[in-house]
Amino acid sequence: MKYCAFLRGVNVKGTNMKMVDVCQVFKEVGMEDVNSILASGNIVFSSDKHAADLKVILEKAMSDYFSYEAFLFIKSQEEIEHFWSGNPFEKNEDLHIYTFVGNKEIEGILMKEFDMASKTENERAQIVNGVFYWQVPKGNTLDSSFGKILGKKSMKDQFTSRNINTFEKILKKMSS
């Protein structure tokens, strides 16, 4: 089965790693057809194991190799298509659209945080089929009240986010 591992906190705040090294770690623990998409920690691969087992194997391998506490989320090609196709927002050159990948029911926690946050003009959030989507004006991602949740230490093992365009790139790689 084809999967994508979404690594949390890669190449930010001092956790630097080369994707070629990450891919090698995946190969060394038995993953096949391993490729990286962008430098933000999106690793496409094949395995006959279940996602829950892969999460344990890959987090341990990454933690051991890079000497940090690795958090990653494993999604199948079908799940990634679901993330991509569920986007409720129209493309706009002035706005970013982020999709959140995480633990079961994280979307409710994120929506609660979003509802409590002050918002900029055109900043919106929506849950579609259990997936949390966030639209924010370009240049406001980390400065927005809700954007600050992205770096909360208490949430580091709960989710990671990606720009919606990243999902398109991942799906193209999975289909090739």
Strand order in the largest sheet:
2-3-1-4
* Assigned CATH architecture of the largest domain: 2-Layer Sandwich
Radius of gyration: 16 Å
Q: How much is the average pLDDT?
A: 92
Total beta strands: 8
Assess the beta-strand content as a share of residues: 25-35%
CATH class of the largest domain: Alpha Beta
Low-confidence stretches: none
Q: H/E series, N to C?
A: EHEEHEHEHEEEH
Helix content: 25-40%
Oligomeric state of the chains in view: single chain
Structural class: alpha+beta
**Number of self-contained structural domains:** 2
Protein name: Pyridoxamine 5-phosphate oxidase
Pfam family, one: DUF1697
InterPro entries: DUF1697
Organism: Chryseobacterium piperi
